[in-house]
Amino acid sequence: MNKTEVVDIINGFLVEEFEIEDDLIQPDATWSDLGIDSLDFVDIVVIIEKEFGFKLKGEDMINVRTLGQFHEFIYQRQLSNQ
Amino acid sequence: MKRVVITGMGIYSTIGKNLDEVRDSLYHGRSGIGLDEERKSLGYRSLLTGMIESPNLKGILDRRSRVGLPEQGKYAYVATLEALKNAGIDQDYLEQTEAGILYGNDSSSVPVIDAIDLMREKKDTTLLGSGSIFQSMNSTISMNLSVIFKLRGINFTVSGACASGSHALGMGYFLIRHGMQDCIITGGGQEINPESMGSFDGLSAFSTRHNAPEKASRPFDRDRDGLVPSGGAATIILESYDSAVKRGAKIFGEVIGYGFSSNGDHISVPNVIGPVKAINTALLDAGIDIKDIGYINAHATSTPVGDDKEAEAINEVFGSTKPYVSSTKSMTGHEMWMGGASEVIYSLLMMNNDFIAPNINFENPDEHSAKLNITPKTIEQGFDVFLSNAFGFGGTNSTLIIKKC
Q: Which of B62, B63, B129 sits opposite A46 (nearest CB)?
């Protein structure tokens, strides 16, 4: 999967599932900017597992603070899983 | 002691999704019963059930609030929205006062089963998602609605089997009466799905009159062959009289009596002495004479033994005055955890619209029901005071008495 496809999937579920407004979906948006709290993150783990077939762990995400970093993290992770 | 009144009602049931629809169904004696073919593949004896649509709350309620709501929680949310609107209570009022919630609920089967299935398959608890725990607990309705409506008062669920909704109202009545709360959202919710009812079906308690679903629930009738499970949600706004007057709220009725008892007997077979005690305690609490009761909304579920025992109990107390009696379960089926609350709403709709809803399918009495004044047809007559019974497994009994205000 290329980077654009990964970004589209992530942004797609943030808009559809989490009902985040389109204009908030920016690479430099933090979880807080997006209104994502610790409970929402549990649901993100569920969706990532369904969409990409691997399980996110909290410790992997310590340095992932923005949406752009999350896109890159998932992109790299799914490449290494292939 | 404070006076306790009802200033709001909301209903989402198999005979209507709001007060207007339900009032019309009650008046016309419409049944909400149908067949669920899925139950056949699960080995059910009975395919009969109350039929209801799940409300779509997307666009009405935010995602975080929706994620924690199971089926009966959605019903309860819709019913509560109607009840608050009906009461003229908005979100600002709830946030400025110390309103509470006491809701009846006694199961949440589907989220529990889904979580266990997923856990066994994935062997990873995170993958159950964030809403599972909030959907799974018996207190799911009170915990979700208290957050959605930002309530700051009393907050718990009453689990008293098929008397849950009635006991929730009774507890709310006590708290307001003793000056501890001014406004409480009360009610009862009940899930409708095959997962939750299989073990009850296994007791052979359900009707198998598959050839005529609308005739299957026939409380007090000689040829009844079991109850029909059903559900939905009913919300009642209880308020102190002083608070209602201060707000200029419309008052639909005043709760004047609550009686309860436990049979101290069999876990599923009812008796006469327990219900008689609950009825007499409620009458004593209300300080009224038996002749003042104009209508009794019976618990009668359409089981052979249950209806017999209740008929004996009603006759023992009201044999000399014979008020009108009907079981609205003849139309709705048995709404279980919800029934004690919904049947107060049904009775309030009758009292405020001057009619008595029929006990449909009451075609032939038996030895005990012949002694009661059961109406199989709609009666165009008002009444000022009614009594509502609700009984449940374990021998729990609850009786409420409500009068025009």
A: B129
